[in-house]
Write a structure and sequence with these properties.
The protein has 213 residues and is an alpha/beta fold. The protein has one domain: Rossmann fold, CATH 3.40.50. Helix content is 32%, strand content 18%. It has five helices and seven strands. It has helices at residues 13-35, 59-73, 85-93, 149-162, 176-183; strands at 77-82, 99-105, 117-119, 137-142, 163-172, 186-187, 202-206. A seven-stranded mixed β-sheet has the order 3-2-1-4-5-7-6, with helices on both faces. Helix 2 (59-73) packs across helix 3 and helix 4 (149-162) runs parallel beside helix 5. The longest helix has 23 residues, at 13-35. The protein is globular, with a radius of gyration of 19 Å.
Amino acid sequence: KMDDDDDIPQLSSHTLAALQEFYLEQQQREGMKNSQGFNQYSIGSIEEDWQLSQFWYSDETASCLANEAVVAAGKGGRIACVSAPSVYQKLKEQDGKDFSICILEYDRRFSVYGEEFVFYDYNHPLNLPENLLPHSFDIVIADPPYLSEECLQKTAETIKYLTKGKILLCTGAIMEEQAAKHLGVKMCKFIPKHSRNLANEFRCYVNYASGLD
C-alpha cells in the first residue's frame, strides 16, 4: 500500500511559519473586531487582496491622505478615491462630516458601500456611469494598481475626467517623470507607508499647494 502522505505537497518550514503568523494575525484581528464592537468601515473590514495588486497603506498614511483630501476638497467638497480603498475607508470613519465620497474600485467587495461604489477597470478609463459627471470632484486621490506607464496613462484619463483641478496621486518614485507628463503633478516630501513593506519606493504627487510638504 502506498504511503498516503506521498502526494501531499510539503510546505517549507519558512512558508509554514509565515502562514502561521498570517493566521495568527487574522485571529487577532478577528478578536479585535469583536471586542471593539466592530466598525464595518475600519481598515480591516475588507482585507487587501494581493491578486488584485492591492496594498493597503499603513494606518497613519491612510489617515494623513484622508485628512489632506478633506482639507483640499473644502467645505461640502466631493472626493473621489480611484483604486485607493484604504483612504476611502479612513474617510468613511469620519462619516457625517461635511464632504461626500465616491470609490472607483475593481474589487467588487467594495459594493457593500452601496451607491458610493463604482466598479472601475483602468483598461476602460472612461467607462463610467452617467451620474459621474465630468469635473464634478474637488479632489481625486488615485493609486494606479500597477507601476507601468500604460496603467498610469489610462488612470490619468479617469482622473482628468473627474477632477475640477486638484489631483493627489500615489505611485512609485520611479514614475515621477510619467506622473509629470500625464498629470502635471510634482512629488511631495510626504512619504506614504504601507502596512506591509513594498519593494518599490512609494511617493505622493500633487498639482496644488498641499499640506504634504
